[in-house]
Design brief:
Radius of gyration: 14 Å
Oligomer: single chain
Number of helices: 2
Largest sheet: none
Structural class: mainly alpha
Low-confidence stretches: none
Order of helices and strands: HH
Number of strands: 0
Shape: elongated
Helix content: 25-40%
Mean pLDDT: 94
């Protein structure tokens, strides 16, 4: 548990990080951008959490 709290142990289980990111990008199409092909940079990370969530920051 100490390794998780320190951020040194990260989840390597499904869902894959690229599938999570794709779902978020697809969900924001026609809402934030016309098409997700407009995304030019992406940083995605998976962490263990007692409060599972997706945090999205968009910068123009």
């Amino acid at each position: 548990m100490a390794l998780i709290n320190a951020g040194e142990l990260r989840p390597t289980t499904k869902p894959d990080i690229d599938n999570l990111a794709k779902g978020i990008k697809d969900g924001l199409s026609k809402v934030i951008w016309h098409d997700d092909s407009q995304v030019t940079e992406l940083v995605a990370r998976k962490w263990y959490s007692d409060n599972p969530r997706a945090e999205v920051t968009i910068e123009w």
